[in-house]
Amino acid sequence: MLHPPAMRLSPVLLSIALAGLTGEVLFEVYAWVISPALFGFALQPSNLVIAMTAKLTGISLSHSAAFVLHALIGSVGFGAVVYLTRRGLGLPVWATGLVAGVALWFIAQGLLAPFIGRSFMMDFGPYTQSSFIGHVGMTLIMAYALDALLTRMPRQTA
């Protein structure tokens, strides 16, 4: 069945979503398996989502709903951040992942955590350190996955 052009997902958007999903899944593996082994606790960004949603809307989300929301933001939004970092700055793949990861880590720990009443960068404690590894690792994976997907994409001619 043929779909009108508006119904098809562009190859670039599909690549962003697939790279984002790959990075997000591996972030969750890090958060729930590796972080506890390295730091003694799991990362739970759903707590940040719950607190922000309550502060901004007054709605109390469950941990499950907040987890799904963070996973969607991580997959689509963070994938888009990696893509825009690469396109906007023209950096090598590794630098794209590093810059995007540091930016997202800073937003989470330096801006959003204080917004919900926590200290700036959560005093650079173990949670913030683990969060750094998780965010940078995730965006490095996204950058390499996105690069692999986009370089396999056929070139379109006008």
Outline the structure in words.
By secondary structure, the protein is mainly alpha-helical. It has helices at 11-39, 46-57, 63-89, 93-115, 126-152. The chain has one domain (14-150). The protein contains five helices and no strands. The longest helix has 29 residues, at 11-39. It starts with 10 loop residues before the first helix and ends in a 6-residue tail after the last helix.
Q: Uncertain segments of ≥5 residues (pLDDT<50)?
A: none
What sort of overall outline do the alpha carbons produce when their principal axes are compared? globular
* Mean pLDDT over the residues: 92
Residue share in β-strands = under 5%
Q: Count up the helices.
A: 5
What is the total domain count? 1
- Count of DSSP strands: 0
The H-and-E topology, N to C, reads as HHHHH
- Give Rg in angstroms: 17 Å
Task: Look at the helices and sheets and give the structural class.
Answer: mainly alpha
First-residue to last-residue Cα separation: 25 Å
Largest sheet: none
Helix content: over 70%
